[in-house]
Structures are given as C-alpha cells and as structure tokens.
Design goal:
Layout: H1 7-16, E1 26-27, E2 40-41, E3 50-51, H2 54-68, H3 88-95, E4 102-105, H4 108-119, E5 128-132, H5 137-149, H6 154-157, E6 158-161, H7 172-182, E7 186-192, H8 204-213, E8 217-221, E9 240-243, E10 257-261, H9 263-266, H10 308-324, H11 326-347, E11 354-356, E12 369-373, H12 378-387, E13 390-391, E14 393-395, E15 404-408, H13 417-437
Bound molecules: pyridoxal-5'-phosphate.
Pyridoxal-5'-phosphate (PLP) binds near residues 139, 192, 196, 221 and 244.
Length: about 450
C-alpha cells in the first residue's frame, strides 16, 4: 500500500475498508482524554476496549439469576450448565482448531499450570524445557515452579534461547537448531506465540515440528497471538496452548481465558491431568459419584463451573470477530501496522532516536510495534504522548543498559487509519519538541 501522511488518505482508507466500522462498536476510554483531545487507544495488547453490547448481555444474565436462581443452570439459550460452549465455535475459528480442542475456562496462569501437569512429564534424561529469553514473568515463574515441584533445579532444566548479540529477534533456524541440539534431553518447548515485548510472531509450525522431531512436546502461550494473528493450532500439531481473553479478545479485565488441547491428547482419556467435576462426563456429572470419566477434548480439563458473569462480555466481542473473520482482520492488520511503521519512520527518518525492534516482515509480527528509544528521550516522549491522549505503553530501560521501549498496538478490530495518522503525527511533533527542550 502506498501510504501517505495526510487526512485525505486516512479518511479515505477508513471509508473504503470493509472492516473500517468496528470502532463504533466499542467505547473509547474518554476518561483518558486530556483537554478535550480525541483519545487514540493503542493499548489493546494490554486491555481491549469495552464492546458497547457487553452491558446488556451482563444485565440479561443478572436478570436470569434474579428471576430463576438455581434453575438458570438449565433454562434458556444461555443455560449456565453449558455456558462455556457458547464460546467454542468462535474460539476454534480464531485459533484454527477443531471445536473439541478448545474451551473457554479459568485464567491463563492457572491454565498453564494445568497443562504443564499434563504435558511436562520429565523422565530420565528427557527433562529440559526450552523457552525464549525474556519471556513474560508469569510464564517464567510458572515453569520454574513446575520444575521445582518435580524436585528438579530450574538451573539444570530450563534452557533460555537468546537473540544474537545486539539483536532482539530470534531466527527460526536458530531456534530449530537449538532444539535439534538438545535432542532427546528435550521434554518441552514452551514459548509465546507472539512475544509480548518484541512483538515477534514466532514460526509456530516449524518450531513445533522441530520439537516433535526430537520427541518433545510443544506448548504455546498465545496471550498476545489470539485475536491478533490467525493460527492453525490443529494443523500445526501444537500439543497445547493457553491464552487470556482481555487483550485482543476484549473480554474485560481478568476475563476467563481459554485452552487448546490437540485431539491426539484430548480424545485420549488416559492423558494424565489434574481433574475437577466440570471435566467429568456431563451425562453423569450430577450423579455425584465416580470414577472420573473425562469429557472428550479440551473440556475434559475443566475444573469448575464457568464464571458466567466474568465470561459474558467476551460473547459480545466474539460476535464481532465472527462477523469480521480472523483472515480478513489479518489483511487489515498488516495494512494498519504497515501504516504505523511508515509514520514512525517519517517521524525519525534518520533513525537517530527510534528503532523498531519488531520484525519488519509482516509474517513475523502481529499488529504491535515495539519502538526502542535510544538516549534519554524515552520517558519524556512517552509522557508527551500521554498528554496528547495517545494511549500506549512504556517499558523502562533494562538493568543491562538496554533502551526503554514504547509499545504501540493498532488492533485489527477497532483501530483506524485516522488513529495511526494522529499517533504518528503526534510522535513526530513530540520528538521535535523534546529534542529542542533537551538541547
Ligand atoms: C498477559 C499475559 C499473562 C497474564 O497472565 P494472567 O494469568 O492472565 O494474569 C501471562 N503470560 C503472557 C505471555 C501474557 O502476555
């Protein structure tokens, strides 16, 4: 696309784009408007916006509770006993799975513990776990604690793969060669689908294949991938995956997440797991006796009855995803992110201050661009963006002297070309101003 930094261009693109109308389906966070300025929300990678339809759906469920109490479990189209199934079809499309392979449940970190219990089973020499260096802290804590819980020492067992000197990005070859090198000592590859800090979208298919080639399993944290990039978890033979629903899926703060378990494992009742009554055969669940008879598929990992009120906003957002389609959203997302890249490069054409550390190739990234800000200007630039009602996020420089990073995420569903024009132009002006102020 031939990008231009003009109102005429941005307006025309927003009007022509068949998926251009979704911002109107969400509330912009007007509480963040400074001095009446328009809010530009580029933080959907942290917390998605509130769908306008969410409140009505919540009120319906509150009303059903009010009027039917316990019978609400068995009455109506949204009967709570099967509430989790309302999400299955849409989630399966978004992550590329059979419907038997996904279920909306629990919280990401707890779900990851559950799936590690099933899929990290160290035996003899096969006990290593490969992760990307700089993984999200919760994921590191989870993996470390699992390793310790097995009586092993994380130092001996967790292998972190680092980008080569001075780089932020891991090459697929580097990862697959490392996997090959670990060979039959490798038990599990546990990585993020899209890296939260760099925005790199890993080649999940090749990495999963490499893991399987040495007899290891591959599990993915898709917190930053789900609703951002299309995936084919089933076809790629991913063993398991987890995600949360409050980032690109707009499910609301702390909304229950979801899991994927490949049918190879999910349809096998012998796959070991930590069990609860909601994972038990629905037909005999209320007989209240044993033995545990797992539901086939991902549903067999459920522990508890669904958090109905917590899940409800997600219904309104998934309707929009169904409507738009994840493949069409991807096409739009490439263009929006390309536009943001164009605007950032325009703000600093000689790359004096900004360095986009996210891969340049669209297939290696989702919508997010992470911009390293070299020198002391990072925090002042971020603060000035905030004053201009451009909402994004700031990661402090690392202790090892790495630069601070501004993350900007034009979400495929609700951000517009106008948003990006406004953010990019503000970035340009802010950079000039801050440079002058700092001499
Ligand atoms: C957002 C995120 C989490 C958060 O975990 P919760 O259990 O939902 O609080 C964990 N891991 C990654 C990679 C994330 O991006």
């Amino acid at each position: 696309m031939d990008y231009q930094a003009s109102l005429t261009f941005a307006r025309a693109r927003d009007q022509e784009d068949e998926l251009g109308g979704y911002q109107a389906k969400f509330f912009l966070p007007l509480g963040l408007a400074r001095d009446g300025k328009t809010v530009t929300y580029l933080a959907g990678n942290s917390l998605g916006l509130q769908p306008r339809a969410a409140t009505d759906l919540i009120e319906d469920e509150m009303d059903r509770w009010n009027r039917f109490a316990v019978e609400g479990h068995f009455l109506g189209d949204t009967k709570w006993v099967d509430y989790h199934t309302l999400f299955t079809k849409s989630l399966a499309k978004i992550v590329g799975a059979n419907e038997s392979e996904v279920v909306a449940m629990g919280e990401l970190s707890a779900n990851l513990h559950l799936l590690l219990a099933s899929f990290y089973r160290p035996e003899g020499e096969r006990k290593l776990i490969l992760m990307e260096a700089g993984a999200f802290p919760s994921d590191r804590f989870i993996v470390e604690s699992h390793v310790k819980w097995h009586g092993l020492d994380p130092k001996d067992v967790i292998v972190e793969i680092h980008p080569e000197d001075g780089r932020y990005i891991l090459d697929t070859d580097q990862i697959t060669e490392t996997i090959g090198g670990l060979g039959d000592e490798l038990a599990l590859v546990m990585m993020s689908g899209v890296q939260y800090f760099t925005g790199q979208y890993f080649d999940m298919e090749s990495i999963t294949k490499a893991a399987h080639a040495v007899g290891a399993k591959a599990g993915w944290d898709c917190a930053h991938a789900v609703g951002n990039v299309p995936m084919l978890l089933h076809d790629w033979n991913v063993d398991f995956a987890v995600w949360c629903s409050y980032k690109y899926l707009n499910g609301g703060p702390g909304a229950p997440g979801g899991i994927f378990v490949h049918d190879t494992h999910g349809l096998n009742p012998e796959t070991p797991r930590l069990a609860g009554w909601w994972g038990h055969n629905r037909a005999t669940r209320f007989n209240m006796d044993g033995p545990f008879d797992p539901m086939p598929g991902a549903e067999g990992w459920q522990l508890s009855n669904a958090s109905v009120i917590g899940l409800t906003p997600l219904r309104s957002s998934l309707e929009l995803f169904d409507d738009a389609g994840i493949m069409r959203l991807r096409e739009r997302s490439r263009n929006l992110t390309g536009y943001l890249e164009f605007m950032i490069n325009r703000a600093d054409p000689d790359y004096e201050v900004f360095e986009i550390i996210t891969p340049t190739e669209p297939k290696h990234r989702g919508c997010q661009l992470s911009v390293a800000v070299h020198g002391p200007l990072g925090k002042p630039i971020f603060d000035a963006l905030k004053m201009a009602s451009i909402i994004c996020d700031w990661r402090e420089p690392t202790q090892e002297g790495g630069p601070g990073v501004i993350r900007l995420a034009p979400t495929p569903l609700y951000n517009t070309y106008m948003d990006i024009l406004r953010a990019g132009e503000t970035l340009r002006v802010v950079l000039e101003t801050v440079k002058k102020q700092m001499g």
